Amino acid sequence: MAPKKSAFFVFITCHRNEEIKKGNKAPSFLELTTKLSPIWNTLTDDEKDKYKVLANKYNSTQVQKKPLKHISDMQNNSHDFWIMQKYLAEMFGRISDNEELFKKKFILLHINCHTHGEERYYFPAEIAALEFSLIDGISRTYHQVIGISKIYPRGFAGSMRQFSDRFHRILCFDEHPDDYQQIILEFSTFLNDGIINHADLKEGTLDLPYLFTMESEIVDDERSKSIFKIGSVERLLFEIKKKINLNLDTQNLRSGNSVNDILESDMYGYGLGCKYHELRDISYMCSKARIIQWMSNICKHISENTGLRLKPGRHTAVQLRNGSKLIIENEHLPLSKEDLNIG
């Protein structure tokens, strides 16, 4: 069994990897130990914690092959997660009270992929995002089905079809919009809530908001890195509950009421998916239906524990006469029964 690594060993390994990435000659561990020991001793406990986490992960896997690469991979993924946690802690720390929290807007994201898992190809098949606040529910949505008919690796079409049949039914060889640059521009415009252009994307100066999705949906692959900041919707809900002290209530710790249970309960049916999935009667596979589900479940859970007043059609879906469901995806659209003609 390989000897266990300390947090300090991981710290100097991460620094060594950074030097290599910059094109510098890899320094020896003796040199690094001499150079970095004073810096390590000045770090706070919180700053050292992320290296302790990496060390525990490394030791628990008992990896004996390519240990430095393994630590580097864990560092990249854990660093992103640590940055997201730090951002959330700072953001919620700036929120003064529940009134401000309830008005705060968040963006949820779900992406279905064209993929061949063994080769780790990931092409977006569907992107859905929504902006919401606890007080008003949905304010804006974005949705796009995406094709790869011109570029997909044809040798893997069979395996990609199997993945599609299981998760979203969007066929990789169907004709859908596939101008990635234009799609990214339109999506970034939605996130920015204002007009941007291709030059803005190239310059990398946009300060786009965090997007929150399920941790299981985040691909740990260097090729998936982008201009977007992706966070965990589970962590978002946890921080909301923490801010209003819901996590201190023993009722919220009972079985079946975990963060994941709350988010995934009550899968919505016909009427809440996109046109592509609705026409095929598979709205439960739609990315848009998923994020509406998350948003609604977050708001319902907070309402049950705080008295937050829910608005049918904004926080939760309304039932129509034909049995389908409806939720208003734009805050400027009418909401009354008369205007919606649902009687």
Question: Keyphrases for this structure?
Answer:
two-stranded antiparallel ribbon; alpha/beta; 5-stranded mixed beta sheet; 343 residues; single chain; 13 helices
Tell me briefly what this model is.
The chain has about 350 residues and is of the alpha/beta class. Helix content is about 45%, strand content about 15%.
Describe the structure.
This protein is 45% helix and 13% strand. The chain is built from 13 helices and seven strands. The strands form two sheets. A five-stranded mixed sheet has the order 3-2-1-4-5, sandwiched between helices. Helix 1 (7-21) packs across helix 2 (29-42), helix 1 (7-21) packs across helix 4 (67-93) and helix 3 (45-61) runs antiparallel to helix 4. The chain is globular. The N and C termini lie far apart (70 Å).
Fraction of residues in helix? 40-55%
Q: What integer is the average pLDDT?
A: 77
Low-confidence stretches: 62-66, 221-225, 248-256
| Class derived from helix and strand content | alpha/beta
Question: What overall geometry do the principal axes of the alpha carbons give?
Answer: globular
Number of strands: 7
Radius of gyration, whole Å: 23 Å
Q: Beta-sheet strand percentage? A: 5-15%
Order of helices and strands: HHHHHEEEHHHEEHHHHEEH
User: Ends: how far apart?
Assistant: 70 Å
Tally of helical segments = 13
Biggest β-sheet: strands ordered side by side in the sheet: 3-2-1-4-5
Tell me the major beta sheet.
5 strands, mixed
